[in-house]
Amino acid sequence: MEQNNNTVPVWYKDENERRLAEHIIELEKSALDKWFNGDTSGYERLWSERSFTYFDGAVTERIDDHASIAVFLKTIDGKLFADSYNFRNPRVQLGQDMAVLTYQLFAKTTLIDMEYNCIEVYQKEDDGVWRVIHSTWSFIRPMDKDFTPVKEIV
Description:
With 154 residues, the protein is of the alpha+beta class. The protein is built from three helices and five strands.
């Protein structure tokens, strides 16, 4: 990561932007910590109830609202566990009351082996809280994956 003389990465204009980026990353990691302990509530609270969409490599259609993703989350709550995960190469790009977090996620879980490129679009909502308004989890190099042994999730 290229940095200027003040140790702020060059894509942040100042220390405030760097701190906001760290906050966004910590929000995501907190949800992931719960996720890999079988608790989907971290993402259920992080994902916006007002405006939310979701794409996943295992789902053929976009999910268009929080209520629908909450139904999905209930199907895996208490079933997905991992001893550890690798949250790799996070980067936050900032705009006016919006932020895009991209990273790679690796974990061997009780349901599937995860190797994802993740895109989380955050927006500062009217209550001042940063929430995800769009989430995409896409397989890293899906042409290299063998999906035949995929475990039944539901």
